[in-house]
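User: Show me a protein chain along with its predicted structure.
Assistant: Here is one chain, sequence first, then structure tokens.
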Amino acid sequence: MNRWNGAGRRIHMQEVGTRDGLQAESVFVPTADKIALVNSLSQAGMAKIEVTAFVSPKAIPALADAQQVMLGIERVPGVIYSALVPNVRGAERAIESRTDELNLVMSASETHNLANLRMTQAQSFQGLCEVAALARQAALAVNISLSCSFGCPMQGDVPEDTVLAWCARFIDEAGAGGITLCDTTGMAYPSQVASLTARFRAAWPDTELSLHFHNTRGMGLANVLAGIDAGADRFDASLGGIGGCPYAPGASGNVCTEEVVHALQLMGYDTGVDLGRLLDASARLPALIGHETPSQIVKAGRRLDLHQPPRDFEAIRERAEARPA
């Protein structure tokens, strides 16, 4: 495959800003505004939207209105509405709220899993298997997000074999239909992404694979392209580039949805996303969260959003043409 020519190849864009992004904000975005934001993302053509998380309001007060938001959104046919759930109770609430897919999280790093979830990996796996069983009873899809798949900020490198062994257990024992390999703190680099993606694809060609990158060290878009080259076609991204792991020191925002869409469309990939609508949604974020976002496309505009020449341009031309060559 040629990374410089998408040739119409479909890339599925999956929005996580309404969960991963908003949970990291210090302000509470009103429920009606959250619903309007999700609706605008649906209309923009996102393939999947991680709407919220069914977690304890004490743990993440920014998402205390999870049920109201999930029940209040407008469902667009073909869009998958996902939610993060940490346990059986969260899964029950998500199912009651008509969630399409349950996203379950565990870390490939034992150190990060303990720091983030307060459980060993074995305890997390057992709990997630119980949630997956409940999801199967409700005929809901299950996706496993494996944090720190490309490195742990406390432990260092996480061996590929370790990551793939956990993938195997989730697919074979928990019945997961999808796996997301997460670069939780922006430690991934392109050749590493290509290697792990290719090995996953070779082992499970029929399992839905998503890649989730952060732009902590400025390699987010490069990692997306490396993933595409290696066979990935689903990518998490966050509107405005907001987000980050609250338990990961130094982590910055996720890759920016509109920046990834803008780049891929210029290269000929079919994202199915209306970039204009996406930019309109992103431009509303600062008023909701109280600060600017990292989005460079919102600040600078699209590549061919052109500017008018100076008002005296014709006079400049005449003076230039009057000068001897």
